[in-house]
Amino acid sequence: MMKGNLWLKSQIEKLIRIFPEGQVCVDNHGEVVAFALSIIVDYARFGDSHSYEDIIDNSNFGTHDPDGDVLYGIDVCVDPDYRGMRLGRRLYDVRKELCENLNLRSIVAGGRIPNYHKYSDKYTPKEYIQRVKEKEIYDPVLFFQMSNDFHVRKVLKNYIPYDKASGSYAVLIEWNNIYYEEKEETFGTKKSSARIGVVQWQLRSVRSVESFFENVEFFVDAVSGYQADFVVFPELFNSPLMSEFNEDDSAKAIRKLAQYSDEIRDKMVKYALSYNINIIAGSMPVYEDGRLYNVSYLCRRDGSYEAQYKIHVTPAERSDWGMTGGNEVKVFETDTAKIGILICYDSEFPELSRILADQGMEILFVPFATDMQNGYNRVRICAQARAIENECYVAISGSVGNLPKVKNMDIQFGQSAVFSPSDFAFPQNAIVAEGTPNTENTIVADVDLTDLKYLHNSGSVRNLKDRRTDLYEIKLKK
């Protein structure tokens, strides 16, 4: 917090010059709507009794030490017009990721207590903080920090003398990096992991598209609450909306269902932004240029999205709905891992996932919809094979339950799961997690991407490296 709440352009430029990774902003079409500024310090030089000006060296930032051990947060700001969109939380998440990536001990900051002036005649700072913890008093800054896993380390007096709302006090807060290593790791660089949320979706009649969105947002909210990096929904998860077209034949009904797909995709993009999570939006029918496709959308938490078209349509999709297969297979870059998406039947064609593996895929997402257990077993067994042969994780997400009068989607059998390769670093049965069959539930599982790198180079077997490319190869023709 600068005096007058204003940073000079020259100060921002210097911060970017000396520590570009530590300066983060959110922009909306070129307009900065939120930002977070930080430096690295050798914390032993300052200890727990310091002032804001001590840390920022009177705005000269000579205290920044690339060899220091603590990431010190010097400011976070969100435009009032953009509050309520969890931008502050996302900025904090970026700081945490940076702290882990740089192998720093912790994040420390002096947090304001802007509502303290209302209670300073009744409570000491210590008593005020305790009442905020007990939720008897609401302080927007301190409450936000504690909600983001920061703990109070000490009360600082005269931290920012001109902060009258806080009575010149501040709360020294800290977030500890549990992955911090005193010595360099023996293999690779840093521990790299991803948290995957999988929705096992109950098919149910819905009154309207708004009711459908309520169900979707519930799961996005729930999974993001566990700070997951990804959430995946099943194939044709929007099929309950097709029930309003029961009077039409199935081919007409699914084309009418496709009228909702752009709206659902756009809503998923908003959820990804708002809840800070990458969403694999199951799949939906898309009607374009006179053709009907089955399409999955990756909605990234930075507001961008991309599409993966189902390549192989089933005989029933072709005969009942007149669906057409897509023509592009590719890996998608995300802020956490390189991912691939294969919709249901596509997972049963090993060539596709091998092409994705050659492009560096680390996690394969398989949204599926199967009516009987034998169909489900095809998806499950093939997904497990894809994980082993391509040395990647595979997350499958399916629907359960019944949907009367919706042809091809009237009954569903499913058990969602996350599979791993099969070697010493992974679960003995190569199953990271799995849901309860035929019951609506979610899975949240952590997968270690570093283990994949070790497997590629030093595994008991090396399916990718040991291929006889002198004898055979798989390649795209388009």
From TrEMBL:
Matching Gene3D superfamilies: 3.40.630.30, Carbon-nitrogen hydrolase
Keywords assigned: Hydrolase
Ranges of residues in domain CN hydrolase: 194-449
GO molecular-function term, one example from the UniProt record: hydrolase activity
Domain of life assignment: Bacteria
InterPro entries to which the protein is assigned, alphabetical: Acyl_CoA_acyltransferase (IPR016181), C-N_Hydrolase (IPR003010), C-N_Hydrolase_sf (IPR036526), GNAT_dom (IPR000182)
PANTHER family referenced in this protein's UniProt entry, alphabetically: HYDROLASE YHCX (PTHR23088:SF50), NITRILASE-RELATED (PTHR23088)
Name listed for the protein in its UniProt record: Carbon-nitrogen hydrolase
Organism: Fulvivirga imtechensis AK7
Taxonomic lineage from the root: Bacteria, Pseudomonadati, Bacteroidota, Cytophagia, Cytophagales
